[in-house]
Every structure is written in structure tokens, then in C-alpha cells.
Amino acid sequence: MLAGAYDVVIASGIESMSHVPIGSQRDGRDFIGTQVAARYPDGLVPQGISAELIAARWGLTREQLDMFAATSHQRPAAAWADGRFDRDVVPLKVGADEVRLDESVRPSTTVDVLAGLKPAFYDDYWAERFPQIGWHVTAGNSSPINDGAAAVLITSSETAQRLGLKPRARLHSFAVVGDDPLLMLTGVFPATAKVLDRAGLTLGDIDAFEVNEAFASVVLAWQAETGADLAKVNVNGGATAIGHPLGASGARLMTTLLSVLEQTGGRYGLQTMCEAGGLANATIIERL
């Protein structure tokens, strides 16, 4: 769009994680290839270990992660009950059934229930290499395995006017960063700072945040670094409950962010998510 090559773009993504499990990071340690491995002779780590390292570095306890996860389930359950997702979600026919709700949201989730889950990524090899890890990351405070799809329609203001479309928001500023590939998931920290700087805005100017909940430790560490008000973060719930179908998450976050701004009357919204390997992006939108 910025280059002028297109007038109208549908930015979309899909992931069927139930059919195509991306398990190389889980099943073995040689998941990056020999050339990348040669640059990091000590070895990089799977995302789950990065999530554990983040929890250790930022001093996050198991109870904190589980409390965050429980809230992440309660928020979308309330949003569905209030009709806040009705405009966002298209019901899908699957045979004789119709899927209307996010299936991984569990309103009955509590800290006590989550406390009974075992660490998801414990391994003797990683425990020996990283003795500082407390092994607090579980299936309950991580994003589940989901299928999903999402899309957003983007045009220039001139094209929207010509086609009689009413814009809901404008893309204000964007940023992409590369960060520590060992911690991997922390790229959202500098991405947030960079996009705010580019926009000429402060954290206090942002009315709503969507920070991808690949792991609860990522969002809590992001909050500790930025000082953002968690009451403005993932207001209608996050990926810990809704899910993180990888290719669909960017558009899903943007859709939710826009809806939250409209529901709350906010002006600016900030979305950020990591893409593994230390990469992350951030986008600020302005509701119109």
C-alpha cells in the first residue's frame, strides 16, 4: 500500500495447528539448521525455554503466571457473553455443526486448577544448562494448539472514499526489531519503545494494547519493562485462552484491538507480537 502497488489489500493468515503441528522446537534441539547453529555455538533454545528464561530473569513466580492465565480466560468469556466478539467472528459450518465460539476459552479456569499442571518444557539437558530456571511455564499459562484464520481490509483513504467505504481506523506507525535470539520472545519490548518513538506518542497516550500471549511470562515481563497498565492490555482476553494459530494471530490481534477501541471510545491502540528468533513487530492504529 505504501509503495503504491495496490489500492486494496486483504491481509490475512491461517493456521491449522491440529493438522500441521510445528513440533521441531519441542521434539529436538537441532531445529535451526547448521549455519545458524554455527553462529551460536552454545546453542539456541526452543520457545518454551525462552519463556522460562524470561520468567527467571524478571522474577516471575508460578502464581503470577497462573493468575494472569486465569484472567486471560475470564476476559474473553465475559466478552462473548456481552456480545463484544459478535462483529469480529464469522460462524463456520463444519459438517452439520456450526462453530461460533472460541473453543479453547475455559471460563471455569482458576489459579487452583492451573496450579496442578506440570511444567511443560522440563528436560534434564535444559535444567543442567540453565539452573536459574524455576520451571513455572505450563500448558495452562501458555497459548494452546489452535486452528484459526483472520483477515483485515486495508486501503488508502482516497480508495476508501472512491469505493464508498467507511474507514474504522488508520495505520499510524509501525516498527520491526531484532532482539536477543536466546530470550527470543523479548523483541516486543524494544518494538513497543520504537513504535512509540516513531509515532511521537507516549505510553500514556495509548488507550488499548494487544500483546500476544504466546506465554504469560512474555506479557508480564513486557509490562514490567514498559510500566503499561494491565487493565488496558488484552481487554477482551488473549492468546492464553483464545489461542495463537500462528499465521492468523497478527490479523486477529488487530481485529480485537480495533473492536476494543470502538467499544471503549479510545483513540490510539498498540499491537505487538514476537515472531521467534528475537524478531518482533509493533503497530499503532488510530480509531477514526
Automatic annotation (TrEMBL):
Q: Which InterPro entries match?
A: Thiolase (IPR002155), Thiolase-like (IPR016039), Thiolase_C (IPR020617), Thiolase_N (IPR020616)
A Gene Ontology molecular function term of the record: acyltransferase activity, transferring groups other than amino-acyl groups
Task: Report if keyword Acyltransferase is assigned.
Answer: yes
Thiolase C-terminal domain sequence ranges: 165-287
Nucleus in keyword set: no
Alphabetically sorted, this entry's keywords are: Acyltransferase, Transferase
PANTHER family documented for this protein: ACETYL-COA C-ACYLTRANSFERASE, BLR7806 PROTEIN
Q: Mind telling me which CDD domains this protein's record contains?
A: thiolase (cd00751)
| Highest taxon, organism lineage | Bacteria
Q: According to its UniProt record, which protein family does this protein belong to?
A: Belongs to the thiolase-like superfamily. Thiolase family.
> What protein name does the entry list?
Acetyl-CoA acetyltransferases
Domain Thiolase N-terminal span(s) in chain numbering: 3-157
Gene3D superfamilies, A to Z: 3.40.47.10
Biological source species: Kibdelosporangium aridum
